[in-house]
């Protein structure tokens, strides 16, 4: 069901500072910068690698307001890994299958993610404390 790790989502206070850090320490390149009002984030995708099943990225996330998923996370836990995003072929089918196994879905239906992808979150409390995102990419 899971094709690859699409991205690791990292919460930060200052997006520009963190982009510079990842560029200078790891030599990564920003391939997309977006504001996603629905998700409450200003974000950047930095390309890590290409594989048979698609590319993988680091997703840097800065909250638009304190009262957002990432804003609350930062207040509670500080900067660090916020979620893991896995690539799937058919996100609607994957959500059905995962829900049938008793895992709570944060999103019953896919939403809009970075670079035109369809995304949906699974509840961290049902995945051993890991906020998990499914990604059906539109970039192939
Ligand atoms: N990883 C692990 N656990 C998390 C978490 C995370 N990222 N975020 C929240 N939690 C835990 C909290 O620690 C808390 O646990 P305790 O009750 O033991 O303290 C519990 O989940 C509830 O947390 P909360 O702060 O009260 O937050 P909410 O219940 O309001 O929201 C969640 C939690 C997962 C439903 C919400 O963060 C959400 O909808 N996330 C999905 C959307 C999102 O993260 N968007 C930003 C990224 C967008 C993108 O990737 O494109
Ligand atoms: Co993500």
From TrEMBL:
Signal peptide: none annotated. GO terms for molecular function: metal ion binding; methylmalonyl-CoA epimerase activity. Residues 4-137 form the VOC domain. It comes from the Bacteria. InterPro entries: Glyas_Bleomycin-R_OHBP_Dase, MeMalonyl-CoA_epimerase, MMCE/EMCE_epimerase, VOC_core. One of its GO terms (biological process) is L-methylmalonyl-CoA metabolic process. Pfam families: Glyoxalase_4. Keywords: Metal-binding. The keyword Metal-binding applies. Belongs to the methylmalonyl-CoA epimerase family. This is Methylmalonyl-CoA epimerase. The lineage of its organism: Bacteria, Bacillati, Actinomycetota, Actinomycetes, Streptosporangiales.
């Amino acid at each position: 069901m899971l094709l690859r790790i699409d991205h690791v989502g990292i919460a930060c206070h200052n997006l520009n500072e963190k982009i510079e850090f990842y560029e200078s320490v790891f030599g990564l390149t920003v391939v997309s910068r977006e504001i996603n009002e629905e998700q409450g984030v200003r974000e950047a995708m930095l390309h890590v690698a290409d594989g048979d099943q698609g590319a993988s990225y680091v997703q840097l996330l800065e909250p638009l307001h304190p009262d957002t998923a990432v804003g609350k996370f930062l207040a509670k836990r500080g900067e660090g890994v916020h979620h893991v995003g896995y690539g799937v072929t058919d996100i609607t089918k994957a959500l059905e299958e995962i829900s049938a196994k008793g895992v709570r879905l944060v999103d019953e239906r896919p939403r809009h993610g970075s670079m035109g992808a369809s995304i949906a979150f699974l509840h961290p409390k049902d995945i051993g404390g890991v906020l998990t995102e499914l990604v059906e990419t539109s970039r192939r």
